[in-house]
């Protein structure tokens, strides 16, 4: 199991430029379905929420929204309050990876796995193709 997908570590500081101190109980969470960050934490109606990736089936398979119920130098607890699942009839049926707010907007990115033939139909390099995705996208935008 990849710790990047299953372990949550947190740090704190009095100033943005540090010094940063590791939380006393790091990793504060070990859970493949709810540890990896999935966007910017946010406040809603006075409560702090933390989006997390659900990597239990696949990397970025869904996003869980957690309400942080305790956060201090010696304590961290949260509870799942919502789950955002990919829709099978959407253009991105294979996962949801990230949720972030910016002003009045909320951004969510989706995942679609494309096999060789579908990638070629769209002008993208197939898996294993030496052409990079960046080069293929650059050609498509010219």
Which of globular, elongated, flat, extended, rod-shaped describes the shape?
elongated
Strand segment count:
10
Based on secondary structure, the structural category is mainly beta
Return residue spans where pLDDT drops below 50 for at least 5 consecutive residues: none
Rounded to an integer in angstroms, the radius of gyration calculated over CA atoms is 18 Å
What's the story with the biggest beta sheet?
Answer: 4 strands, antiparallel
Q: Order the strands across the largest sheet as they lie in space.
A: 5-6-7-8
* Helix proportion: 10-25%
Count the helices. How many?
3
Cα distance, first to last residue?
Answer: 41 Å
> On the 0-100 scale, what is the average pLDDT?
86
Order of helices and strands: HEEEEEEEEEEHH
β-strand amount? 35-45%
Would you give an account of this structure?
- The protein has 142 residues and is mostly beta strands.
- Helices cover 13% and strands 37% of the residues.
- A four-stranded antiparallel sheet has the order 5-6-7-8, with no helix packed on it.
- β9 and β10 (105-111) form a beta hairpin.
- The longest helix has 8 residues, at 133-140.
